[in-house]
């Protein structure tokens, strides 16, 4: 999955690095001095012969000095034990002894996904600690965990979307060795792993890619400079992305990738980078026999993302569907500010369950233009990932409040039933299953004072269009904000939380009996009761969270939560 041998599976003591415009490049090896590299016609520099250091074979720490500046980390660094500004360390992914040789989970569309952030999932905030909670996920019925970005970023904690070294696992999480242990442990419990990756921008601290070559373009997106995907000498930039995807899917045994904000990938190439990723993921599936599911986060409502490549689509496996979230959120909370305005009323809920997208060429008042296209009739709704809560929709609220801060137990049960029994691929946000009361606000730990202040002021400005009070926004740089986001693992044992947890478990059991691609039919909403039918099961939910009418005599009930939700089997 690499051009001209640029991808290296084990430490390469010739220290290859792409720096096409440099006049000189040296490798600085800790304890072994600086050594000049030689430049090839392709812009790659390397030693003429592998460095022979002898010794005990311990991994070397090294960096590159480009035109006298540096040393800087390797753009393809596999490990950064001392942070993103320090030397890289050799790391061999093949040294791990996997125990998942028989693991073949198949496609991940239609499976129950659980999104988690490693730093706040457990008190310890590490991969090994997260592995210690896998029994909870297995008993819940989770089929795949989706990890927020884990690649290296500056500072001890953050969401992960300010990463700068795509191959290196954030050291405070445990580094790459712990990552492999975590994936192996997940597979041992029948749980797939999806890794969130960010290819649309790089973080503001520790991004040395421009020192090496034209990795960035002149254009910008919401988060910073765009990646050079289609400009001069973009081939090697694209190769970096493709090789990184291969690293996760092949070397780290990850089962799928969640591609962050693909609408921010600016690419006019004949083969869009997303199509290239899909093509090479398919080749990996053919080679390894393991899944390589690609899921796009997209704001476009464009079915081209998941349309087959033979029909001029990009060929991705699934995409997030924010419209489902918005329709569920508005109809349960009554909140209609900002981008929620268009989703007021049950008609939005009906349309998303029937057609997948709400905005399918319709007017978007938030965008002040028409938005989206209709989903192709032959694309199953299981290729749309739906959720009532996720890191964005919780964390990008002013105080990071979960639905538990707004909804009573009945409406929380309704939200669970709509997502878990709906026609989409369901995704849960960590702690949702027991109604966690801990918030999940935005948090960061930028060491640079100017960057820290820019983050504070930027967050307040973002909330203006949603009508939220900036005075209540927690300081993202305050360590207490980060600590407040950590799950409280004593809550699941409390009676009300345990009851909701049992409800989630039951819904997942019911879901497993349904064909993954079964559409929602007979979608209705009358007198505040939303209902739909899937494969012989009728789901009826009181959007108020109570006063669901009594069932007809002789009804076979599969699941019920008070007078809020009822799932019945259609016997006629």
UniProtKB/TrEMBL annotation:
Q: Name one GO biological process term.
A: trehalose biosynthetic process
* Entry's Gene Ontology molecular function annotations: 4-alpha-D-(1->4)-alpha-D-glucanotrehalose trehalohydrolase activity
List positions binding substrate. 258-263, 322-326, 391-396
Pinpoint the Glycosyl hydrolase family 13 catalytic domain residues: 93-511
- Localization per record: Cytoplasm
Q: What class of enzyme is it?
A: hydrolase
Q: In which pathway does it act?
A: Glycan biosynthesis; trehalose biosynthesis
InterPro entries per record: GH, GH13_cat_dom, Ig-like_fold, Ig_E-set, Trehalose_TreZ, Trehalose_TreZ_E-set_sf
Q: Which reaction does it catalyse?
A: hydrolysis of (1->4)-alpha-D-glucosidic linkage in 4-alpha-D-[(1->4)-alpha-D-glucanosyl]n trehalose to yield trehalose and (1->4)-alpha-D-glucan
Pfam families in UniProt = Alpha-amylase
Instruction: Tell me a GO cellular component.
Output: cytoplasm
Q: Say yes or no: keyword DNA damage present.
A: no
Active site location: 260, 297
NCBIfam families with a match to the protein in the record? trehalose_TreZ (TIGR02402)
Question: Could you say which protein family the record assigns here?
Answer: Belongs to the glycosyl hydrolase 13 family.
> What is the name of this protein?
Malto-oligosyltrehalose trehalohydrolase
Which organism encodes this protein?
A: Leifsonia shinshuensis
């Amino acid at each position: 999955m690499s051009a001209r041998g640029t991808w290296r599976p084990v430490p390469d003591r010739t220290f290859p690095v792409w720096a096409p415009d440099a006049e000189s490049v040296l490798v600085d090896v800790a304890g072994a001095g600086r050594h000049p590299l030689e430049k090839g016609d392709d812009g790659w520099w390397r030693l003429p012969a592998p460095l022979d250091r002898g010794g005990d074979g311990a991994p070397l720490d090294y960096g590159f000095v480009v035109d006298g500046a540096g040393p800087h980390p390797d753009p393809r660094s596999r490990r950064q034990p001392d942070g993103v500004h320090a030397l890289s360390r050799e790391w061999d992914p093949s040294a791990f002894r996997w125990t998942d040789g028989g693991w073949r989970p198949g496609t991940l569309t239609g499976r129950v996904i659980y999104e988690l952030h490693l730093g706040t999932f457990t008190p310890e905030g590490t991969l090994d600690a997260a592995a210690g909670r896998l029994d909870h996920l297995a008993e819940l019925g989770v089929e795949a965990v989706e990890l927020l970005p884990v690649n290296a970023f500056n500072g001890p904690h953050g969401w992960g979307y300010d990463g700068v070294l795509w191959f290196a696992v954030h050291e405070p999480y445990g580094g790459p060795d712990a990552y492999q242990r975590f994936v192996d442990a997940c597979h041992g419990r029948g749980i797939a792993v999806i890794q969130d990756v960010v290819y649309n921008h790089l973080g503001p601290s520790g991004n040395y890619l421009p020192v090496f070559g034209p990795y960035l373009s002149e254009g910008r997106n919401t988060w910073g400079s765009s990646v050079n995907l289609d400009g001069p000498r973009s081939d090697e930039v694209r190769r970096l992305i493709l090789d990184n995807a291969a690293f996760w899917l092949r070397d780290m045994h990850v089962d799928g990738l969640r591609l962050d904000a693909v609408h921010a990938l600016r690419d006019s190439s004949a083969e869009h980078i997303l199509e290239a990723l899909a093509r090479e993921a398919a080749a990996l599936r053919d080679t390894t026999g393991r899944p390589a599911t690609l899921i796009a986060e997209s704001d476009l409502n464009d079915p081209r993302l998941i349309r087959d490549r033979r029909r001029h689509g990009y060929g991705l496996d699934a995409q997030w569907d924010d419209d489902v979230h918005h329709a569920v959120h508005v109809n349960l909370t009554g909140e209609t500010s900002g981008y929620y305005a268009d989703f007021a009323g049950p008609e939005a809920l009906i349309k998303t369950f029937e057609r997948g997208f709400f905005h399918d060429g319709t007017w978007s008042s938030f965008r002040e233009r028409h938005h989206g296209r209709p989903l192709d009739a032959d694309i199953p709704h299981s290729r749309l990932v739906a959720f009532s809560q996720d890191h964005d929709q919780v964390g990008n609220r002013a105080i990071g409040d979960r639905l538990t801060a707004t909804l009573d137990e009945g409406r929380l049960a309704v939200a669970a039933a709509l997502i878990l029994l709906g026609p989409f691929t369901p995704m849960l946000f960590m702690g949702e299953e027991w109604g966690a009361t801990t918030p999940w606000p935005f948090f960061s730990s930028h060491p640079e004072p100017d960057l820290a202040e820019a983050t504070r002021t930027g967050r307040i400005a973002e909330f203006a269009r949603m009508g939220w009070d900036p005075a209540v926004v927690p300081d993202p740089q305050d360590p207490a904000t980060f600590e407040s986001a950590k799950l409280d693992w004593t809550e699941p044992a409390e009676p009300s939380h345990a009851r909701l947890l049992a409800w989630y478990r039951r819904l997942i059991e019911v879901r497993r009996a349904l064909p993954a691609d079964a559409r929602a039919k007979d979608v209705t909403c009358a007198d505040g009761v939303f209902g739909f039918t899937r494969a012989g099961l009728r789901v009826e939910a009181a959007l108020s969270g109570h006063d669901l009418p009594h069932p007809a005599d002789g009804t076979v009930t599969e699941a019920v939560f008070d007078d809020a939700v009822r799932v019945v089997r259609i016997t006629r």
